[in-house]
Specification:
Blueprint lengths: L2 E2 L13 E5 L6 H17 L5 E5 L5 H12 L4 H26 L2 E5 L2 H11 L4 H12 L6 E6 L2 H9 L12 H17 L4 E5 L4 H12 L3
Helix pairs in contact: 1-8, 2-3, 3-5, 4-7
Length: 218
């Protein structure tokens, strides 16, 4: 479920900002999420806005039910994509759009770029089919800023090997993640004005210096 981490009350606030974090498993998003959220809350407070942290798949009661199915059960790649977008439609309608309309800022751990990367790049599902679903489910809605944590496949593999029991995506092969990363980078090249790429190889302090620079632009 989403988590409101700061607050403000101002009826005249402008539409909120939508920020997403992306990257292959092992890229380090989770390590930096709370720190980034805290710093983002400081930026949002300048506009008397709240920051709402959420994630995909999930973010709503229905989304979390679908998340358990998606992470644990094997299924056809098109079924997987349809369930991802079903969860996303609910997420947008019940959480993201209402929050942005109120003037709140939304920080989501993954959004549509992940579907293009994992189901499109990793599993080889038609990008054209995903574009149709993207337009149908979210219309013109896109993040104001997408932070992509990027690192070589071997480094991500090493990090994943130290993690908890993996879900079905974390258990995928290096070839799968090579394709997934390539699709993330393709998406970045298509919309450079929206993406900010983080070199996630270095130590935490170095990554956070890069994140600080991004925060200054929001």
């Amino acid at each position: 479920m989403a988590n409101i981490v700061s607050s403000g009350q101002n009826e005249s606030r402008p539409r909120g900002k939508f920020i997403t974090l992306e990257g292959i498993d092992g890229a380090g998003k989770t390590t930096h999420l709370q720190w980034f959220c805290d710093r983002l809350s400081e930026r949002a407070a300048l506009q008397a806005a709240r920051v709402i942290v959420t994630f995909e798949p999930g973010g709503t009661p229905l989304g979390e039910t679908l998340r358990e199915i998606l992470l644990r059960q094997e299924m056809h790649s098109e079924t997987e994509a349809l369930l991802m977008f079903a969860a996303r439609r609910e997420h947008i309608a019940t959480l993201i759009e209402p929050a942005l309309t109120r003037g709140d800022w939304v920080l989501s751990d993954r959004f549509t770029d992940a579907t293009f990367a994992y189901q499109g790049g990793g599993l080889g599902l038609s990008i054209d089919k995903l574009r149709v679903l993207e337009q149908w489910v979210q219309g013109e809605l896109q993040p104001d800023c997408t932070v992509l944590f990027d690192l070589p496949i071997d480094a991500a593999h090493t990090r994943r090997s130290r993690a908890r029991i993996p879900d079905k995506f974390e258990s995928q092969s290096d070839d799968f993640f090579t394709r997934t990363r390539a699709e993330y980078l393709r998406r970045t090249a298509q919309a450079p004005e929206r993406f900010a790429i983080i070199n996630a190889v270095g130590p935490i302090s170095t990554v956070r210096e890069q994140l600080e620079a991004i925060l200054l632009t929001l």
